[in-house]
Each structure stands twice: as structure tokens, then as C-alpha cells.
Write a structure and sequence with these properties.
Blueprint lengths: L1 H59 L4 H8 L5 E3 L5 E6 L11 E6 L1 E5 L2 E12 L7 E10 L4
Antiparallel strand pairs: 1-2, 2-3, 3-5, 4-5, 5-6
């Protein structure tokens, strides 16, 4: 009888150990899944910040919205914005210019007379995967002396 209770105890301990291991595996699977989702979000945000910074630099180097489009246009990825002065450019997941890319950068061009020059205000909004909510938004200003609006 004593031998039978030892075997039963061994089976119960083994079963409990298996249950604990299964719980640990399930928890680790969830942790790694959440980490992968956060990594994807971080990659998108980083890409959006880089594209917005590049657009802001292009605005500061441009005299007109047409110059801005010329600077951003590579392989036919940049188009004039239909509703306002500005440019829309598209990029792929590796941030390369691509007319069908997943990133869309909308850069507005808002000139205002300011003393002896013009203040160019611009907003670069980066959207990803066709969403309407921007992943990142960057507002910039650039002053031009002697340039009319």
C-alpha cells in the first residue's frame, strides 16, 4: 500500500509540474506577443519622425510649394495637395520613395507676410497604412527675407 501512495504522489507532482510549465509558457507567449506589437508601433513612430524631419528640412530649403514638391519627389512619389498649398509624398516601409507606399506625408505651406520678409509655416503630418489619424505631426516655421507670399 505504501508503494501505491508513492506512485500516486509522483504522478500528482508530475501533473502539477506540467501545469506550472504550461502556465509559464502561456505567460511568456503573451509577453513576447505584446513585445512584438510594441516593437512594430515603435518602428512606425520612428519612421514617421524621420519622414517629418526630412519634410521640415525640405520646407526650409524651398522658396515655393513647387520647389518643395521637387525636393520631395523621387520616383513619382510626391503630388500637390488638392485642397491647400502643400505636398503629399508617399514612402514604403523602409522609408524609400514609393508612390504606393504605406507612409503618407502631408506637408502644408502657409506663407504670412512678416515685416521685411515672409514667415513660412508648415505642418508635416505622417500617416501609416491609410489611417486618418496621424502617427506623428511636426509644426515648423521658416523666415525668408525679401520673398513675397
Amino acid at each position: 500500500m505504501k508503494r501505491h501512495s508513492h506512485i500516486t504522489g509522483f504522478y500528482l507532482e508530475t501533473l502539477m509540474l506540467i501545469v506550472v510549465f504550461l502556465m509559464i509558457i502561456l505567460v511568456l507567449t503573451q509577453v513576447f506577443g505584446l513585445a512584438q506589437m510594441q516593437s512594430t508601433r515603435a518602428k512606425r513612430l520612428t519612421g514617421a519622425v524621420i519622414l517629418a524631419q526630412n519634410a521640415a528640412e525640405a520646407v526650409s530649403a524651398s522658396e515655393t510649394p513647387e520647389d518643395l514638391q521637387a525636393l520631395l519627389n523621387e520616383n513619382g512619389n510626391a503630388f500637390p495637395m488638392p485642397d491647400t498649398a502643400g505636398v503629399t509624398a508617399r514612402y514604403d516601409s523602409d522609408l524609400n520613395p514609393d508612390a504606393g507606399g504605406i507612409y503618407r506625408v502631408d506637408v502644408t505651406w502657409l506663407p504670412e507676410e512678416a515685416g521685411d520678409g515672409t514667415m513660412i509655416r508648415s505642418v508635416a503630418e505622417v500617416r501609416c497604412d491609410g489611417t486618418e489619424e496621424p502617427v506623428y505631426r511636426l509644426e515648423t516655421e521658416s523666415f525668408r527675407t525679401g520673398v513675397g507670399a
